[in-house]
Design brief:
The complex is a heterodimer of chains A (461) and B (54). Chain A is an alpha/beta fold. Chain A has 17 helices and 16 strands. The longest helix of chain B has 31 residues. The N terminus of chain B is likely disordered. The chains are: A alpha/beta (461), B mainly alpha (54).
Chain lengths: 461, 54
């Protein structure tokens, strides 16, 4: 018999329940085995408190067994998140805030007689302009005599990567793609500089932790009973450490792009005016992707028109700055993301099914590709054909793309260090190639810059 | 291995946490004493909330 629902391929680790898809809607089933803990999570007021504080994704409880499973206790319908993203696509401050959120949840839950049993960054998602915890089944009744079950997971999935970035002063989010279940402690320890041992908290949570664990002594008899005070000390220590970590600002490839471009303020102004008008001219746009978003200057144009905009850039510094400014301004419609279009996040996990690839997630109404094409064609040697095909599969309704001619100073800068093998890179060829995928609706030169904006709509498929 | 959190709650993890918590207990104990002594000599600094608004 065919199942009337699809269990989410990454929702198999925890027997407490699972996520499933039915008729296009995402639900979570709570199993009987977890009924006691879940009911206490609700009755203790913990759930309500966390939702009120905007730490946890709200759900609607449904008293109907949608899967027909005999294990069924209750069905939950969580508020849908717009676009899933994963820690290897986050900037330093995003991972840091996700870590602090996780620790805060431990504190809050312990105060209500529960504890967070799972400290995976995958349980944190971007929702309405902030990071929020999504796994309602991660809270179980707290036993004061037991230590924090997710402690090691926290050290390997949050603390380790953050410490490495802090001490090595470089973005290392890609490491989380290599070790999606967390970087093993002994690897973190060996990658950290020796000086990190002089920080008490780093020494304890990483160096000592790795040393004792590597001995692999499975002591069945606990040395001493754990206590609530000990747990709170542990959390205080982790919080103090994480709070201190930072990725020092460094000049990124683009960080002074707009400062420099401000000399060409008429260029930016003209560009914004055209793009603003064009976005208004396309009807029914609710989602957008700004690829090569830099610090999100143009993502804001879409976001201000109530369009949910994914702002992606390959530069982790830019995305970190964008995240900070969103945090400060409270802008709800922009989701910052690190993505290298020449090598977007792959599908990972069991059967390549648990976390889907960036491209399969990226389906939006409007695609913005501003001052990007020369990076793909000249920086990465992609052909115009490849880029046209790529863009035609992202924006369902429209593409706004900027063509940067070879005569442009930025392109000349790129060509000054490599051989010019890009004879096909001309505006004529660009137009011809893109015409086989798109209907070209508008074309406008931006001020005196020589750069050209195009508004295109994809051909019916 | 140790990643199977739902099967093996981290056999080594218990011992590690017991030791780390003990060290932290001592550290925080002295930190509190130090803060207490300091409070005799200095006026307590204005309480500032360094946590950004969430």
């Amino acid at each position: 018999m065919e199942k009337s629902f699809i269990q989410h391929p990454s929702s198999y680790r925890d027997p407490s329940g699972f996520i499933f898809l039915k008729e296009g809607v995402l639900y979570r089933q709570v199993n009987k085995v977890f009924a006691g803990d879940f009911d206490f999570f609700i009755s203790s007021g913990c759930y309500e408190k966390l939702v009120l504080q905007k730490l946890l994704l709200p759900h609607e409880a449904i008293q109907e067994n949608l899967t027909g499973s005999p294990e069924w206790h209750i069905t939950l319908k969580p508020e849908p998140a717009a676009f899933l993203s994963w820690p290897y696509e986050w900037s330093f401050d995003m991972l840091k805030d996700a870590a602090l959120l996780t620790l805060r949840l431990v504190r809050e839950s312990v105060a209500s007689g529960l504890i967070l049993k799972d400290a995976a960054p995958y349980n944190v998602q971007w929702h309405k302009g902030r990071l929020i915890f999504i796994d309602t089944l991660s809270f179980e009744k707290y036993n004061e005599a037991a230590p924090w079950i997710a402690y090691r997971q926290f050290c390997e999935q949050f603390l380790g990567p953050l410490l490495l970035m802090h001490y090595r002063k470089m973005p290392l989010h890609q490491l989380l793609l290599a070790w999606p279940e967390g970087i093993p402690l002994n690897i973190i320890r060996s990658l950290l500089p020796g000086s990190s041992k002089f920080s008490l908290h780093t020494y304890l949570h990483i160096h000592l932790n790795a040393r004792i664990s590597s001995k692999g002594r499975a002591s069945k008899k606990p040395a001493a009973k754990f206590s609530k005070q000990k747990l709170l000390n542990l959390i205080t220590s982790l919080e103090a450490l994480v709070n201190k970590l930072k990725l020092p600002a460094q000049k990124s490839a683009w960080s002074d792009y707009y400062d420099e471009a401000s000399g060409r303020s008429d260029y930016l102004k003209a560009k914004k005016k055209i793009i603003g008008e064009w976005i208004d001219s396309v009807t029914g746009v609710t989602t957008a992707a700004d690829l090569g978003a830099n610090d999100g200057e143009f993502s804001r144009l879409a976001a201000d028109r109530n369009i949910y905009t994914i702002a992606a850039d390959f530069d982790p510094w830019c995305i970190n700055n964008l995240y900070r400014s969103i945090k400060q301004s409270g802008q709800k419609n922009i989701q910052p993301l690190i993505a290298d279009l020449s090598n977007p996040s792959p599908a990972i996990g069991f059967n390549n099914n648990e976390r889907i690839s960036f491209i399969s997630r990226l389906k939006v109404d409007l695609c913005l590709a501003l001052a990007l094409i020369h990076h793909l064609c000249i920086g990465k040697n992609l052909s115009l054909e490849m880029t046209a095909d790529f863009f035609s599969r992202i924006g369902r309704k429209a593409l706004i793309i900027e063509f940067v001619p070879k005569s442009d100073e930025k392109v000349q800068l790129m060509l000054s260090v490599k051989k010019d093998i890009y004879t096909a890179y001309t505006e004529d060829n660009f137009k011809k190639t893109f015409s086989s995928y798109f209907q070209i609706a508008r074309r406008e030169v931006i001020g005196y810059s020589g750069r050209v904006l195009y508004l295109m709509t994809p051909h019916e498929k | 291995m140790h990643h199977l959190l739902y099967i093996d709650p981290g056999s080594g993890s218990y011992l590690v946490q017991a030791i780390i918590a003990a060290v932290l207990g001592v550290a925080f104990f002295f930190k509190n004493i130090l803060a207490y002594i300091k409070s005799f000599f200095y006026r307590p600094p204005k309480k500032t909330d360094d946590n950004p608004p969430r």
